[in-house]
Automatic annotation (TrEMBL):
Its EC number is 3.1.3.16, 3.1.3.48. PROSITE patterns: TYR_PHOSPHATASE_1 (PS00383), TYR_PHOSPHATASE_2 (PS50056), TYR_PHOSPHATASE_DUAL (PS50054). This is Dual specificity protein phosphatase. Pfam families: DSPc.
Length: 150
């Protein structure tokens, strides 16, 4: 089932205990998921949207810190009981890229470990541009000594 259908099913999200939503495909073209803060108003779910395109040219890395901050806040919600649903249209490229960046930025995982961690949970395929951006992030964090060494 495509992630967009779960994102648009508020009752299911509430049953799953989701407290926060990070939509990495905000917008209203067929390539996006047309939800926003108003869509979740009154549900108790905190929303954050990133208007990202799933193209090699799109600079998703410009949103890595913003996404990681939102995921951090979401997980810390209610004394660490927060649950964040990170999604895009299919859950294949944009959202896994954002989760991999989060694991690198906040859990000091190198790009290979972070990617493998996400792949254990679901099939993913970040586009080549996003993979390049994750590799650039890896180089930057390694240079700054911000990655766990084996």
């Amino acid at each position: 089932m495509a992630l967009r259908f779960v994102a648009q099913n508020v009752m299911r999200l509430q049953r799953l205990g989701v407290t926060h939503i990070l939509n990495t495909a905000e917008g209203n073209s067929f390539m996006h998921v047309n939800t926003n803060a108003e869509f979740y108003a009154g549900t108790g779910i905190t929303y954050h949207g990133i208007k990202a395109n799933d193209t090699e040219q799109f600079n998703l890395s410009a949103f890595f810190e913003e996404g990681a901050d939102f995921i951090d806040k979401a997980l810390a919600h209610a004394n660490g009981k927060g649950k964040v649903y990170v999604h895009c249209r299919e859950g294949y490229s944009r959202s896994p890229t954002m989760v991999i960046a989060y694991l690198m930025l906040r859990h000091k995982m190198d790009v290979r470990v972070a990617t493998a961690t996400v792949r254990q949970k679901r099939e993913i395929g970040p586009n080549d541009g996003f993979l390049r951006q994750l590799c650039q992030l890896n180089e930057k964090l390694a240079k700054e000594g911000k990655l766990k060494t084996k």
